[in-house]
Design a protein that fits this description.
15 helices; globular; about 300 residues
Length: about 300
């Protein structure tokens, strides 16, 4: 049995050791989270809104793709010009970056990772990493259809309103507002957003620790990441490329450490990792002892 200091070290450093991509992702996630959190208490706002719909520097609008669709479906009207511009800004960004939002921006990636089992823990048994299966496409499609149906019936963007992604930034912002006694920031909102967030964390943790299913929320229930993966992972310029397939020693660390349960090792004999679940986190690049993989763009590969 490992000592408490050893376990703390394992958690902080990671096993295998966290590399520059993981550290950069966590730093960026904390920065984005902090900027949304303090928007009610600063005069010069860098960002306003939430991760579902926001404005950067008071000028550049952003709207999540699924939030845009829900807005149109729930309102039963044509979208505004501002919403279309915001959609094009986000689509242009992720046309280049693929599903990087999930691995580099979304606070749930950080929060869920805190409670997930680590590969060094005893009796850690997961469903084996695999290439994407039919159910990982069908189930999210059904979930998307349900969210849109509820949005149409109730007349408001159902998922966007209750989204744990947006609620994370809303929760921190409202909580700071309550502390500073800012009008409109009420404790009821804090309790509401906390309940939603805790529900997702508990659900994901139970699936992970009791049933060995990695990232249940991200793989099956979140329409945001699914849509980014379907629309942009194939066409994105940024990809995880296979540089030196002959160097692979079949250690399987790339597959076993993938948070999305992708069998990364199965792509070694191909050009790049081609999977709509890939969140561009770079963990497979970091853990590979022989440096088989690397981030690159299609322009540099020509």
């Amino acid at each position: 049995m490992s000592s408490i200091p050893t376990r703390i070290k394992q958690v902080l450093i990671g096993t295998p050791r966290r590399g520059r991509y993981t550290l950069a992702r966590r730093f960026l996630q904390i920065i984005v989270f902090s900027l949304f959190s303090i928007q009610l208490v600063i005069v010069w706002k860098i960002v306003e809104g939430s991760l579902a719909s926001s404005r950067f520097l008071g000028r550049i609008p952003f709207i999540d793709l699924f939030a845009f669709v829900e807005e149109v479906v729930s309102s039963k009207t044509l979208p505004s010009v501002e919403s279309i511009v915001a959609l094009l800004v986000v689509a242009s960004l992720y046309f280049f970056l693929g599903r990087a939002f999930c691995g580099w921006i979304c606070p749930l990636d950080l929060i869920l990772a805190l409670f997930e089992r680590k590969i060094w823990e005893k009796n850690t048994k997961y469903t084996p990493p695999r290439r994407i299966r039919k159910r990982e496409i069908v189930v999210p499609l059904v979930v998307v259809a349900i969210y849109l149906f509820l949005s149409f019936i109730y007349g408001y963007p159902f998922f966007t309103t209750l989204s744990p992604i947006a609620s994370t930034t809303k929760l921190s912002s409202i909580l700071i507002g309550v502390i500073y006694n800012i009008p409109g920031a009420v404790i009821g909102l804090v309790l509401g957003w906390t309940t939603i967030l805790l529900g997702v964390v508990v659900l994901n943790t139970v699936a992970d620790r009791l049933f060995g299913v990695k990232r249940l929320w991200c793989r099956y229930l979140c329409p945001v990441g699914f849509i980014y993966g379907v629309l942009f992972n194939k066409s994105s310029s940024l990809k995880i490329y296979v540089d030196s397939p002959e160097k692979c020693i079949n250690c399987m660390l790339c597959s076993n450490t993938c948070p999305m349960s992708i069998d990364v090792h199965s792509f070694v004999k191909e050009k790049h990792v081609d999977d709509l679940r890939c969140i561009m986190c770079g963990r497979c690049i970091e853990v590979c002892p022989t440096r088989v993989f690397s981030f690159s763009t299609r322009f540099r590969r020509k």
